[in-house]
Amino acid sequence: MIRDVFVEARTAMAFDEGAAAWSFDLDLWGRCVQGNSGERAVSAFMLAYGSVQVVETVQGDEQAFGRDMEPLRDEELDATLTILAEQRQRAVQFLSSLPPKVLDYDDPSRELPSYARWRTIRQMLWHITDTESRYYLPSLGLPAKPRNADLSTELLESSRHVRASIATMPRSVVARDRGQVWTATKVARRLAWHERGELDAIEDLLARWGYLHG
Questions:
Q1: Architecture of domain 69-209 in CATH?
Q2: What is residue 117's predicted lDDT score, i.e. its pLDDT?
């Protein structure tokens, strides 16, 4: 099986200027593999998921693929909602089970892009809700949710807000502002990717620290 892969180049995600390889296949919905170049991102994607063909490459931050411009499909929305529910359970479990010394540990060896301010696990959990409720949704013209001061409450409120917003948004909406392009399909795939990626990074940190959590 040869999968279609879509590449974002010269984009600020895991690197200040790197690349990301995406699949729109339903079984890999929201999956993204990154590298410091398009070639490395595609090679890493192939190692993870097998043979690919690059069908589109876009340059720069917050652009959209041609595939993003298609209306969000029922099965993609359903997959996004399922992933969000599963991942929020993981996030709540991290917050409730990890002690403050772990939640607030700033690992001096951790390398992040220059713009990232979420160095601790607690900050990463805040970053998840900030991104979904106060970046992704407003970028598409959907209402932002004000931040709750309590992280535990915010995780629950933000989840409800995001799920309700994407379940009722127009499936063909496109928003262009200050050089960025957002669509319903793009927001859904980004939501399906972002929290899972951050929580996987938390798992990696805990493993590196030799911390076992239940």
A1: Up-down Bundle (1.20)
A2: 92
